């Protein structure tokens, strides 16, 4: 059969059709002619005649003119410019978006990895931001909150947890001119009875000025009246909105209602607004007046007990510094009409801290560190996605080159690529907000520390704005480098490279990013390492007593029916009942418990040997009023003399034990046994030191304030403690005994609250909660960072192996050993890793000092941590390199060369 | 039809009717180009015949207008062919053209009948 196609093609040549269209037409026409030819043959026409007839029918001119009319080159669509730029832009953006979505859908694997990586980064940082925002950046929910300060003695940085006295408060109120109001407050835990079931409430006893200082008034009823703030004044309370709803069903006639607290009747005079937050003690639901005696009848009553917190609201225009210097002047110039006892002499000066700082002080270093860590993580995630985009850019090089060749503008291409990265970021951001939602909830519930202003933590407008902001930044950030990269360079080279035959030098950017990633991860891991070392150092500290199998709880003798006598009786009977329980090996009471987190109960110690009353001779010490057997129960070591015994009662001469550090600082090498001292009182009988016991960490493991004086509760004469800590040493699991112990005490008096039940091991752990919390997050972020780094390194090396396949094949063909190839690739990965590690070490050295406040017993530049983290990261990196290196090793030179 | 004088008429008539013919032939089922040309020839008793160039340029034009849709179809044991089928748009056009044609033919008939009478 004749070759019609050649003929047709020749006759159509003048049409200059698009190649694909021409092929189609030629095939269709040739088929038609075939059919016609067969038909003619079947009709008996000779083949030469048939061919001639057909070619005659296929007249060249006719074919050209007929087809020319239909198959004219279509004019390109009109380009709309200058008429309406806005519409043009919207159309462009719409097109970019559609194209971007198509490109992302085309590679679902890539898109998923990028989106998940970004979602983790954005989610984690948004979650942390939402926790940090109300604590560190928002001001407290009070009018002019920056005018509210806390006032304490300035005992140096080590300690500001020593309480203030009511006497000092009275003096400041009368002498100071800097404050519009000053208030004092102390904890109060009344048991509410008479309404449904009894309940112990969290409350505060406050001076009448408390809500004035905060600048908030009750929403219902009235504020406290200062004329009621006197001994035997009326029993009035203000309650929180929460308590009103919970216990009184929000009944409207609440004001004026009588409530029974600790067996006395109190009148509700007000309900705080729903939005009111009591930031110093968020759980407090009820407030009553302090009702101390403003005439300060003696230097020994409760008016001079150091158990109050003092707050002040500065007058408008008065700065904290001005107020501080005024208070210091007052402190330095005692007046005869304001006598001060020695332990409240104010001689160390005053410290004013804004309430905001006071509230956040405990967690600020940890939160800042965590914020830093999450920023590092976010950066690593971004670098990783940038790298992914670059890698993809490399595989799309052909496409870019083609588009440039077809006249795409550079700006237009950058915009298109940025649209794609923004799309990725937005998807990551949306998913990240979900991650943040869960993260915040997990953070709040899992957080071992009680974050201040917890109620305000959540995903709100500010947090959403934050997420949106970082998402946009990330979208532009991660897209910019790949976009610039893709849109520049020599077209020719790009087209050549797209055929994958040349080894490109374009990888330098990806390598730089991997180096950056490694160094960022190293910083994060060094932080984690330092915290880990601190924590292990911390837990290696001997608290001075045996923490295992020790159950602790606070037992209260509340209510007016308790006088000193019956209080003693109640505690003694309770202790006896507890000791009878099976599983209890020892039990005792103490007025304060190490690591309980309470305000320290410290008093001045005056030794008889210091005849003169000079201040230096007066040492502060913790007071432990204990039941005999406390030191044995706690496992506190006896160094000298004897312990307290059941014979040390009110009827025997008072005796005390002192801690080893107190003995050392006072008596150096002399024997303190038989020496006498007075604790907190300036008169009364002297107490004889009968023993020296080991030091105990009271405030926290890191605070080495260990001066302590122990005496029996019978020998503590100033007042009877109404709340004592019960410590119980058990044979088995201590927590399991808690119900039985409660029942035993309630069998003595069923109305007494038993609170704050926890094992000592638990207290020990939570005393380091802040560091633990930071460490936990650092570890989590560090882990993610290591994974991302491994993925990043793997990606770069595996792309490099793919590109160098030919080179490797040639090397192998020329006699290189497979081992050499393995080393070649590993060396490449190792170079990147080591560069990143070196940079990271430098960066860590620069930034870890920011962690100093969280570290303990380890320097911020601890060589062991730096070294081991560097090693760890290098090993992980080598593992990540090993996979592509093995692949390179398995390259078959024959296959490669044949392919050539 | 072989008359020189009728040639112009022939061409114009063919041109006007060709679209209608092709659309009609693919109305019931898709057909390929050769089949269409054979059907036109056979059904017109050999009076109407398209050469290759005009037939295919007509098909392409109708396709471009969206009245026909061509598709390569491969049947077992046969070479692949391009089959044309009527699009919904083509269906509407066909109905309209049929009406016009009928009116036209009737008009012509009325005139010629009068002349002959």
Description:
The complex is a heterodimer of chains A (900) and B (117). The longest helix of chain A has 37 residues. In chain A, strands 1, 2, 3, 4, 5, 6, 7, 8, 9, 10, 11 and 12 form a twelve-stranded mixed sheet that branches. Chain A has 27 helices and 23 strands. With 900 residues, chain A is α+β, with helices and mostly antiparallel strands. In chain A, helix 6 crosses helix 14 and helix 12 runs parallel beside helix 23. With 117 residues, chain B is mostly helical. Chain B has four helices and three strands, in the order αβααββα. A three-stranded antiparallel sheet of chain B has the order 1-3-2. The N terminus of chain B is likely disordered. The interface between A and B is medium-sized, with 20 and 17 residues.
Give the low-pLDDT segments of chain A: 74-83, 498-504
The amount of helix of chain A comes to: 40-55%
Main sheet record of chain B: 3 strands, antiparallel
Q: What is the number of strand segments of chain B?
A: 3
Structural class of chain A: alpha+beta
Summarize the biggest pleated sheet of chain A: 12 strands, mixed
Shape descriptor of chain B reads globular
Tertiary shape of chain A: elongated
Largest interface, with counts of residues having CB < 8 Å to the other chain, equals:
A-B, 20 and 17 residues
Structural class based on helices, strands and sheet pairing of chain B: mainly alpha
* Content of β-strand of chain A: 5-15%
Range of helix content of chain B? 55-70%
Helix/strand order of chain B, N-terminal first? HEHHEEH
pLDDT averaged over residues of chain A = 83
Strand residue content of chain B: 5-15%
In whole angstroms, how far apart are the ends of chain B?
24 Å
What's the number of helices of chain B? 4
The multimeric state of the shown protein is heterodimer
Rg measurement of chain A, Å: 41 Å
Number of strands of chain A: 23
Distance between the termini of chain A: 39 Å
